[in-house]
Design goal:
four-stranded antiparallel beta sheet, about 40% helix
């Protein structure tokens, strides 16, 4: 699985485990992701996938490196999809 596929899977798992916010974002703690059996089976390197998604500005969290136990309560926010990403161009004749 390449990085882009892993980031997409991570987005799905955050939506599954997280809490939807009014703005379309989702919130989950690192501990919930880390201790979930399904995530453990999907992600060989969860922290690396989180860092890749953060670098792509898909999600946000405090700090650079998350460690199990120490950072279990750190909130990870999956940003809402941008308005332009789902828009389609309309042409008039």
């Amino acid at each position: 699985m390449n990085v882009e596929e892993e980031v997409e899977r991570l987005k799905e798992e955050i939506k599954r485990l997280g809490i939807a916010k009014d703005d379309g974002s989702y919130k989950v703690t690192f501990g919930v992701l880390f201790h979930d059996d399904r995530c453990a089976n999907i992600f060989e390197a969860l922290v690396g996938t989180l860092r890749a998604a953060k670098k792509r500005k898909i999600l946000t969290y405090d700090g650079e490196l998350l460690l199990q136990g120490v950072h279990d309560n750190v909130e990870i926010i999956l940003k809402p999809p941008s308005v332009t990403s789902g828009a389609t161009a309309v042409t008039t004749s």
